[in-house]
Amino acid sequence: MRNIDVGEVKNASLSQLKMLAETLREEIFRTVSVCGGHLSSNLGAVELTIALHRVFDFPRDKVVFDVGHQCYTHKLLSGRARLFHTLRKEGGLSGFPKREESEYDCYGTGHAGTAISAALGIAKARDLHKETCIVIAVVGDGSFQNGLIYEALNSLSALSTRILIILNDNGMSIAPTQGGAHEVLEEIKAQKGDLELFARYGIRYLGPVNGNDLDELIPALQEAKEELRSGCVLLHAVTRKGLGYPFSESAPMETHGISPHPAAREYSAALGEELCAIAERDSRVVAVTAAMTDSLGLRTFFKKFPDRAFDVGICEEHATVLAAGLAAGGMRPYYAVYSTFLQRSFDEIIHDICLQKLPVTFCVDRAGVTGEDGETHQGVFDLSYLSMIPNLAIVAPKNIAEFRKILQKSVSWETPLAIRYPRTGEEGACGEVDFGKFEVLQGTMSDIIILAAGERCIRIANSVYARAVRAGICFRLVNVRFIKPLDIGFLASMREKYVVTLEDNVLAGGFGESVARALAGSGKQVYSFGYPDAFIPHGASSDLMKKYGLSEEEIYARIEELYARG
Fold first, then answer.
1. What is the DSSP pairing of strand 37-38 with strand 439-443?
2. Which strand (E) or helix (H) includes residue 394?
3. Nearest-angstrom CA–CA distance, 70 and 119
4. Active-site residue list
5. Half-sphere exposure of residue 527, counting CA atoms within 13 Å on the CB side?
6. How far apart are CA 525 and CA 516, in angstroms?
7. Partners of 285 in the beta sheet?
């Protein structure tokens, strides 16, 4: 698609803008169908973004997209249309706003709830520089449940600055929004709500307006622009997620994120199946999620056990403490969450769960390199930030069958527990799982041993092992399974001189470092493979793993070198 000149949006007639909206919608659909990405959220925000570019002067004016998964039209209108076919591909456009990518992206986002705080910071910097640009935060109603939003609103009067908040209200985050904040917005839309809610924060409320109707939107934004002269403004725009494609409109959750890859067996499906089975036998079992019921495989659990299922919205810290409270009250909570979002709850994991030794199980989905969503979504830090916390056990199953077995046994383990796993895997087979014990998968004793953490690392190690056997090289391959506590008895019994560790995680503070500490003074040499001290960009997961530290070729070369040393 050709790049669109700023003047085309500024000078076009309304009918031409409406035609442009359809062109952009088709381009988004066509590209996401090939590259994957966020479909329904972007389809619903096309007119809103066109209207913003019509009324405001970017990049002089600044716009911060909360989460950022609705920014595709912004990219298409800001000189990146010609590159849009590279979306989410390695070296191509990011699926989220990215400062390094364009001057139109004034702030990088990827997690919910940050836009108003960031916009306030940018506005205060503007004031201190004595500049006059307009700062805008585009926030979805799903993010309006996040506590950080209210921390930001609470500081508006104290900071004494001016921003425009666009509330993009489509009634959903990934799943339908729920809770008190959602109910307040619904009442306001029905013109029954108390607008004093915003006035108390020092915000002039405008709306609601039809966020998919340029005839309404453009005058409303012009009015908001004028009102900004005297203070902060919130414009409430009601949009339809997935607009323009009936299947996306009718299934906005299913089309929120589209994968370019063929469907594979997902760990989340196994989680849902096993939790339902466990809950049938044990009435203490409850499930907690932060607005990701379907993405994490919990829909059936929510239907079968509605009194024991809790979706708290995009409030990961609250979800963690809620799980702690449930455990303190005698329940067995399972909190399902993506690795990248669990890191938002670091303090609560330490103080509310692990300090009190509460038996909460974290089901940490999308662990390791996740691929096309890029830096903000790579789950490559959890082994490091969880490993340092006392009282917390960490497990990385070798396949889905072992994942099921761990879930079944976890109900009787009296410890906080984190089970980390990638999005997809093989069902495979699994024998008995003993708490804190490694498993030798294959091989015979020699000078070399590979300790592999998790399914993807074991898959790589198996390929290395097959090549080594053909070359007459012997070593043992171990499924470490329990990253914490380490199987100290096994490590002490090893006769091998060379220990190779593999982890789908950054090396700093990770599994390899734990092994090296445990073997310090033993005379054994530890060689660790994982990711460097860097943020990993977007691209295909397999390519990124190979490029950033988990290359089968490099691991095999190391095994050859160690074997030659003898």
1. unpaired
2. strand 393-395
3. 17
4. 241, 316, 344
5. 18
6. 8
7. 332
pLDDT of 177: 60
* Identity of the residue numbered 206: L
SS3 string, 270-316, reads HHHHHHHHHHHHCCCEEEEECCCCCCCCCHHHHHHCHHHEEECCCCH
Nearest to residue 234, comparing CAs of 294, 113, 153?
Answer: 153
pLDDT tens track for 281-326:
999 999 999 999 999 999 999 999 999 999 999 999 999 999 999 9
List CB contacts of 459: < 8 A, sequence separation 6 or more: none
Report which of 48, 147, 67, 45 is spatially closest to residue 112, judged by C-alpha positions.
67
d(CA 260, CA 484): 35
Quickly tell me which residue has 């091998």 as its tokens: 496
| Nearest partner of 290 among 324, 322, 331, 253, judged by Cα | 322
Helix (H, G, I), strand (E, B) or coil at 250: helix
pLDDT of residue 1: 86
Amino acid, single-letter form, for residue 528 = S
- What does the alpha-carbon distance between residue 504 and residue 245 come to, in Å, rounded to a whole number? 38
Residues in contact with 171: Cβ distance below 8 Å, sequence separation at least 6, in sequence order: 141, 177, 182, 241
Cα–Cα distances in angstroms (integers) from residue 446 to residues 78, 467, 494, 556, in the given order: 59, 16, 10, 16
Average pLDDT over residues 433-447: 95
Note whether 374 and 538 are within 8 A (CB): yes
Which two tokens mark 509?
Answer: 């503070």
Which is it for strands 439-443 and 285-289: parallel, antiparallel or unpaired? unpaired
Task: Dig out the tokens for 462 from the structure.
Answer: 């198996």
How far is the C-alpha of 415 from the C-alpha of 208, rounded, in Å? 49
Residue 173 clears pLDDT 70, i.e. is over it: no
The answer to whether 176 and 293 have CB atoms below 8 angstroms apart is no
SS3 string, 210-264, reads: ECCCHHHHHHHHHHHHHHCCCCEEEEEEECCCCCCCHHHHHCCCCCCEECCCCCC
Element (H, E) at 204: strand 203-210
102-130 confidence digits (pLDDT tens):
999 999 999 999 999 999 999 999 999 99
The contacts of residue 98 (CB under 8 Å, 6+ apart) are 105, 108, 374
- What is the C-alpha separation between 291 and 316, in angstroms, rounded? 9
Query: Which residues, in sequence order, are bridge partners of residue 333?
Result: 286
- Residue ranges and CATH numbers for the domains of the chain are 6-258 (3.40.50.970), 267-420 (3.40.50.970), 439-565 (3.40.50.920)
Task: Supply the pTM of this predicted model.
Answer: 0.90
**pLDDT at 543 exceeding the cut of 80:** yes
- Compute the distance between CA of residue 109 and CA of residue 96 in angstroms, rounded to an integer: 7
Mean pLDDT of all residues in 229-238: 96
CA 167, 198, 237 angle in degrees (round to 5)?
A: 20
Q: Tell the residue number behind the tokens 């699926």, with chain if given.
A: 95
What is the spatial distance between Cα 120 and Cα 108, in angstroms, rounded to a whole number? 15
pLDDT digits (tens, 9 = 90+) for 516-525: 999 999 999 9
> How far, in Å, CA of 289 to CA of 244, rounded?
30
Cβ contacts of 216 within 8 Å, gap of 6 or more: 209, 210
In what helix (H) or strand (E) does residue 365 lie, and over which residues does it extend? Answer: strand 361-365
Single-letter amino acid, residue 156 = L
